[in-house]
Amino acid sequence: MPWEKSFDEDLAVENAMQVFWKKGFDSASISDLIEGTGINRGSLYNAFGGKQSLFVKALLKYDADRQAMLARLEALDDPKKAISAFFDSIVANTVADEQHKGCFMFNTALDISAHDNEVRQIVTNGVSEIEAFLRRCIEVGQARGDIRSSMDAKATAKSLLAMIVAIRVLGRGVFAEAALQEIADQAKRLIE
Predict the structure, then answer these.
(1) Total domain count for the chain?
(2) What is the DSSP string of 51-106?
(3) With 0-12 CB in 10 A as exposed, 13-18 as middle and 19+ as buried, what is 57?
(4) Model confidence band, residue 5 (pLDDT cutoffs 50, 70, 90)
(5) pLDDT-derived band of residue 130, with 50, 70 and 90 as boundaries?
(6) Residue 35 is assigned to a structural domain of this protein
(7) Cα–Cα distance between 158 and 165 in angstroms, integer?
(8) Which of 40-49, 91-100, 127-136, 154-163 has the lowest mean pLDDT?
(9) Domain for residue 67, yes or no?
(10) Is residue 104 within 8 Å of 59, Cβ to Cβ?
């Protein structure tokens, strides 16, 4: 008789993502994942094949959620407002994170040498998508005359990305809200 799932796979991936996000790939044990997902060991292996493939699914889910958020911001059809709202949400999420987990994607990027090519590609694509979103916003703002045309859109997008990483990493406990907001405000001034 074939094995039948008795749990919500999407919810299990979400719960596993929270475990990996808090502990990191190496520190998250199978026992942690069993406890975090509420799935027994056999079902976890049958459904996901193991820790590595579950981590990939969790990272892809995080990336999909982030892509949806960027799409909502881009749909505002106001590039400066989209970038400003993005930075405001990053500061708000960082401050609200009582566990100081940071960003799952950036945390993985910081430990990229410990991961295989599949994970490296997901992280590389995820970071590139953020940069591309920022660059598109700048270019649209320039085309509309809302952002100065003399600005190098590609270089500014990279600078803004670096500021996002700074907020998420320093927000893990090094900087308080006021300092994080100063970084976000400086980022917004880059596109005035």
Answers:
(1) 1
(2) HHHHHHHHHHHHHHHHHHHHHHHHTT--HHHHHHHHHHHHHHHHHH-TT----HHH
(3) buried
(4) low
(5) very high
(6) no
(7) 11
(8) 40-49
(9) yes
(10) yes
Measured CA distances, 144 to 79, 92, 134, 136, 153 (Å): 10, 29, 15, 12, 14
For 107, the enclosing helix (H) or strand (E) is helix 104-110
Task: Please report whether residue 168 resides in a domain.
Answer: yes
In a domain, 23, yes or no: no
In this structure, which amino acid lies at residue 43? S
Summarised one tens digit per residue, pLDDT across range 69-107 is: 999 999 999 999 999 999 999 999 999 999 999 999 999
Domain of 128, CATH number, reads 1.10.357.10
CA distance 150 to 145: 11
Amino acid type, 100 = H
Domain ranges, residue 130: 60-190
What is the per-residue pLDDT for 109?
A: 93
Give the Cα separation of 177 and 85 in Å (integer).
Answer: 16
CA pair distance 79, 101, nearest whole angstrom: 29
pTM of the model: 0.89
